[in-house]
TrEMBL record:
The lineage of its organism: Bacteria, Pseudomonadati, Bacteroidota, Cytophagia, Cytophagales. Residues 1-21 form the signal peptide. This is OmpW family protein. It comes from Algoriphagus aestuariicola. Keywords: Signal.
């Protein structure tokens, strides 16, 4: 993950430094809530995550680019007997989920040129999901790269011609793949700073 963070920081600096009037780079603090199978595994609301979105405006109201990030979920389960695969183990469980989406994305802006600009969007690509279950001296891990999509809705508020802030809600859904028989999905709530061009 350290390599991913270094690459992400580098991309932010590159895109922010080369931003022009036809591009936007958004760096967001991301909070998450697991849904479906992921929510059953780790049901606690998570405040650990970030996202990076880059869009180049191909029309005044259409931006195309990429979306990536990292969300971490954690849950603690009481002492009990748990069955994993064909093994039954007794103890207290600590559950961790790491989710890293990598997607191409398109946004449609409803009020281009105005300070308050709502948008809707869709990302399509892949999500890497890793689960780790710790119990005593044992750790069970599962992971998968899966085909994924992420619809989103939000708004951007321009502070000036070079910067803005954004609020967005994304629904990240990775289809069943690898070690997971069910889709792995979560909602992310993102508060971001937008780098805009001249």
């Amino acid at each position: 993950m350290k390599k991913f963070l270094i690459i992400a920081a580098f991309l932010v600096m590159v895109f922010a430094g080369n931003a022009n009037s036809q591009s936007m780079t958004t760096v967001s603090y991301s909070m998450g809530l697991g849904t479906g199978d992921l929510g059953d595994y780790a049901s606690t609301f998570s405040g650990r995550g970030f996202t990076i979105d880059y869009r180049r405006m191909v029309q005044p109201n259409v931006g195309v680019g990429f979306y990536s990030g990292w969300n971490v979920f954690y849950d603690e389960r009481p002492f009990d007997t748990y069955t994993m695969d064909n093994r039954s183990i007794s103890g207290k469980q600590y559950r961790y989920v790491n989710s890293v989406p990598l997607m191409v994305a398109t946004d449609y802006y409803l009020k281009p040129g105005e300070d308050m600009n709502p948008f809707i969007g869709l990302g399509v690509g892949t999500i890497y999901t890793e689960r780790a279950t710790d119990m005593g001296i044992y750790r069970l891990t599962e992971d998968a790269w899966s085909f994924a999509f992420a619809p989103q809705v939000g708004f951007m508020y321009s502070l000036n011609r070079y910067a803005g802030v954004s609020l967005a809600v994304k629904y990240n859904m990775g289809l069943a793949a690898g070690d997971f028989d069910s889709s792995q999905s979560y909602l992310s709530f993102n508060i971001g700073y937008v780098f805009m061009g001249n």
